[in-house]
Structures are given as C-alpha cells and as structure tokens.
Design goal:
mainly alpha
Length: 150
Amino acid sequence: MPKVVAESGEVARFLWSQIQDGGLHRELPLMYADNQHAWNSVLSTEGFDLVYSYYGSRRKYRRKDSATQAALQARNHFINFVEGRTSNPMPLEGDSDPHKWISEQIVERFARKQKEQQNYIALVSGARRRIWGKELGLGGSSGKRRPGHG
C-alpha cells in the first residue's frame, strides 16, 4: 500500500483493500457516505483522464477483430464505470490486469486529495484558533487591552 493511501484515511485504505480483493467500488458503504461526493468527483475527472489516456479514443478501435473489440468493450465498461453510468463494482483480475493498475492510480489520486484536504483543514483550524485566541486576549502578553476592557 502506498504511503499516501496509508496516511490519507480509512476510506482510501478501504478502496485500496477492495482493489487487492478483486474489485473497485463506485458506491461507498454507508459508513463512508460523507466521502461519496469526493470519490465520485475523482472518478469522473481524474479517473476518466486515466482511463482515456490508457485506452485512447474510440477511433483507435475501428478494426473488427475479436481482440480489438474486446479492448473496446473493456474501455467502454471502465469509462461507463468512472462516469457513473453503472454502479456495479469494476472486476479486477490479477496483478497483470491493466484495470487494476488504473484503479490503483485512481485511489492514489483520491488519497492525495483527501490528504490535501486534511492538511488544509488543519491549517485553517490552526489559524482560526490563533485568531480566536487573539480576540479573546489569550494570544500573548502584549499588555495592550482591548477598548472597553479596562
């Protein structure tokens, strides 16, 4: 498990473990419902970009041989998944499955965004505490008194 996934929180670790168990889920369990919007956002933006950059456009699949059509079907299935047209889990088969690699990349990006959000919240919370402390006169020993408190 990548460090960013391990450190970003329970939801990313859950998603990572689901991939290792053979599937990627679009719908999170109820206990993670607060993160559903963020997960959907990563899937539909960065997830789509990863799938598209791996598979390319539909024009690439004009040949009618079975291998080309199987690749087109896999591409379309994954694009439907990241765009939310299906809520069925994305089945992943073994370490050589490109969908597993793409899924891991999507979860890593989700984990990075979660980590960035946690860092931002910590930064804002710390700044708010300092401001509130100053407003309450807890922030230092400047000796100055606020007007009307004398």
